[in-house]
Design brief:
Blueprint (H helix, E strand, L loop, with lengths): L1 H21 L14 E2 L7 E2 L6 E6 H7 L4 H4 L6 E4 L4 E4 L6 E5 L2 E2 L25 E8 L3 H4 L6 E7 L6 E9 L3 E12 L2 E12 L3 E2 L9 E2 L5 E15 L2 E15 L6 H6 L11 E18 L2 E17 L15 E18 L2 E17 L13 E19 L3 E12 L3 E15 L2 E12 L3 H5 L13 E13 L5 E21 L2 E22 L4 E16 L3 H4 L5 E11 L2 E11 L11 E13 L2 E8 L28 E9 L1
Parallel strand pairs: 6-9
Antiparallel strand pairs: 1-2, 3-8, 4-5, 6-7, 8-9, 10-11, 10-33, 11-12, 12-15, 13-14, 15-16, 16-17, 17-18, 18-19, 19-20, 20-21, 21-22, 22-23, 23-24, 24-25, 25-26, 26-27, 27-28, 28-29, 29-30, 30-31, 31-32, 32-33
């Protein structure tokens, strides 16, 4: 049965791709977005046809049509891959988890410690409610010369909505495993003031899954329940003459069962050697506040001053009731705070030359409280009020040259208290062949600083005060075009090199340490297609290839590649009161040392019905065929055992949205 399901899904992918290539175009040109402006790739508005980067834009319309409930759900139709378990959702771009995540251009990566958030410290589960999002811009490739550390694989920028008028709506959802989700969104514009308020409450019992390890088609992931609340608030004041002040407040608090490797059969067969935590409870609170003054916004202009504070704290209960504590991170309580200030200014020197510059200061403070008594012969490493500060200055030159060439060259200087100074540069060239096609090439240097927890240890991790930043460079070639019959194509090739790559190695009995031990080489390509089959139907397709070669003490990244060959297919329908969204995603070529299967294929479908202008009724089915798969690898976590991080099985969700 499993083989037949895969054959049907692969057949659907191939068939729809052929249909896409041969269909007759019905769409008008405004359906496509090559002429739209994007901000993230250059830190200022630039037309996509003049941007020397692979950029994907997800609009508000795309989000509403898909019925997505969170940011990972929004990204499923893109070639962004996500390493996901119940503890975190970590994005991957160009095969690298070192991805910078921004909210309205403000960094939200956590540099105190990863805590299952990968080597970027980014967790998409903490991001704002999707109802508050206007658009998402995804930029693949290096951006350290613009944004500093973490922007190795690329950048994901979540841009929130500004209110344009009065509106209030309420949403209620119910679904499998006791899911209850309630959302309230209200906004208004009064004179020069406008505001948006989004509230969300989510409750869910333990999820079920199809085990790739044991074959159990309805296994219960014990202790994976979720209890979470979110608040997102945005207040804007318009001063006239293209000047404004924006206050944003994002709050998340919750409680979740923290069963890291919930497959009970693997736990038993390993003799208790996997992190099976049937009682540990994680509680957490995140509060992010920013105040931004902007002026002279417009074409190739993005000027602002911003102050912000990001704060996250979490702790664990019932830890010592387990067979083993979480020996990778092992913190009983943890606090991470980032304070920052940014200034950016653009100067239009002439019609063909724009200069962008700015400065930034950021200080990260972290505390970790470990076990007060030795466990398995090891006393947990504790640190308090540890800080990493950074000051940075950057300049970016943008030239529009004859014959529709554009060129940019930029440099950034970062000075860290723990890691010294680093200068990164980048050069890009773009050629606009016509109104629908551009070619580009770029070279950029990259770097990634260690976490505070990497340096000062924690739990069974031994401190290492001699860690150095990971450094390297990336070359990218790409094409954006509108083919015959209106098909929009994006294609890019990349090759990257990363030296002094970090990984943890064994340094004694029950002792581990982060060290600069590896050299990573990545190469790959990314293809995306979008085509309007008719006024009612649209199809999207994507393919990504990533090859990772690793030299050094470990080969974790090479084995952990969760999508050596990644595939995406989306089919959207909309007419009158109905719209529907089907998505298929899959991967082949994965290591059997890290995953229970070398491939997976997962289908989701959603249907929306609007009986009137104020009401929307919808149903969504996730993992329609109840696939057994994992997006987080088991390599190095429990030797000889895979399938330790199972993704959720089939889930059905019903919802009603009502405008008041």
């Amino acid at each position: 049965m499993r083989r037949k399901q895969k054959q049907r899904l692969v057949g659907a992918l191939v068939g729809c791709t052929v249909l896409l290539a041969g269909a007759t175009a019905y769409a008008e040109e405004q359906e496509f977005s090559l002429d739209e402006y994007v901000v993230t790739a250059n830190r200022m508005p630039v037309k996509k046809t003049e941007t020397a980067a692979s950029v994907t834009v997800i609009t508000r319309e795309d989000i509403e049509r898909s019925g997505a409930v969170n940011v990972p759900d929004v990204l499923k139709n893109t070639t962004v891959t996500i390493q996901k378990d119940r503890t975190a959702s970590v994005p991957t771009l160009n095969g690298d988890v070192r991805v910078l995540v921004l909210v309205d251009g403000r960094e939200v990566n956590w540099k105190g410690g990863g805590m299952h958030m990968g080597q970027s410290g980014a967790d998409l589960d903490y991001l704002p409610n999707v109802d508050s999002i206007e658009r998402i811009e995804i930029v693949r490739g290096p951006a350290s010369a613009l944004y500093g550390s973490d922007a190795v694989g690329g950048v994901i920028n979540i841009i929130t909505r500004k209110s344009s008028g009065p509106s209030t709506r309420y949403t209620a959802e119910a679904g499998s495993w006791g899911l209850r989700r309630y959302k309230l969104a209200t906004e208004d514009k009064i004179g020069d003031w406008s505001f948006r308020l989004n509230l969300e409450r989510e409750r869910q019992d333990d999820y079920h899954y199809h085990s790739g390890y044991s074959g159990d088609k309805d296994a219960r992931a014990v202790n994976t329940d979720l209890n979470q609340d979110k608040l997102n608030f945005r207040l804007d004041k318009d001063f006239g003459r293209d000047r404004s002040l924006t206050l944003t407040v994002d709050h998340t608090d919750g409680r979740k069962g923290f069963n890291v490797m919930p497959d009970y059969h693997a736990f038993v067969d390993s003799g208790g050697g996997t992190n099976y935590f049937a009682n540990i409870v994680k509680t957490y609170v995140e509060n992010n506040v920013s105040l931004t003054y902007s002026w002279n916004q417009g074409e190739q202009a993005n000027n602002f001053i911003r102050l912000y504070r990001n704060y996250l704290t979490y702790d664990y209960n019932n830890h010592m009731n387990m067979y083993y504590p979480d020996y990778y991170f092992n913190g009983l309580s943890y606090t991470n705070q980032a304070d920052g200030a940014e200034w950016q200014q653009t100067w239009k020197i002439s019609d063909r030359y724009t200069l962008l510059g700015g400065a930034a200061w950021r200080q990260v403070t972290a505390d970790s409280l470990e076990y007060a008594i030795p466990f398995m012969g090891v006393t947990g490493y504790t640190y308090n009020d540890k800080k990493i500060s950074n000051r940075a200055f950057f300049l970016e030159n943008n030239w529009r040259l004859p014959k529709d060439w554009s060129l940019s060259a930029g440099t950034r200087y970062d000075d860290y208290t723990l890691f010294g100074s680093k200068v990164t540069t980048r050069v890009t060239a773009n050629r606009k062949l016509n109104d629908s096609t551009n070619l580009y090439a770029s070279w950029g240097q990259i770097f990634k600083t260690p976490f505070i927890a990497d340096v000062y240890g924690g739990g069974f991790m031994v401190p290492n005060l001699n860690l150095k930043p990971e450094t390297g460079d990336v070359i990218t070639l790409g094409l954006n075009t509108r083919l015959a019959a209106g098909t929009e194509l994006q294609a890019s090739l990349f090759s990257s090199r990363l030296e002094n790559a970090l990984d943890y190695i064994t340094v004694g009995t029950n002792k581990y340490q982060w060290q600069n031990v590896n050299e990573l080489k990545r190469k790959g390509l990314d293809l995306s297609l979008k085509h309007r089959l008719s006024p009612q139907w649209q199809v999207t397709a994507g393919y990504s290839y990533t090859d990772i070669k690793e030299e050094g003490a470990t080969r974790r990244d090479e084995f952990s590649n969760n999508e050596p060959h990644g595939y995406r297919l989306g089919l959207q329908y909309g007419q009158d009161k109905w719209n529907a969204d089907f998505s298929l995603r899959g991967a082949t070529g994965r290591s059997r040392q890290a995953y229970s299967a070398s491939d997976y294929w997962v289908a989701d479908v959603g249907v929306n019905y609007r009986p009137d202008s104020l009401t929307r009724i919808y149903v969504k089915a996730y993992n329609l065929t109840n696939e057994a798969y994992e997006l987080h690898d088991s390599y190095g976590d429990a030797s000889g055992f895979t399938g330790l991080y199972p993704m959720a099985g089939r889930q059905i969700v019903f919802g009603v949205e009502q405008r008041i």
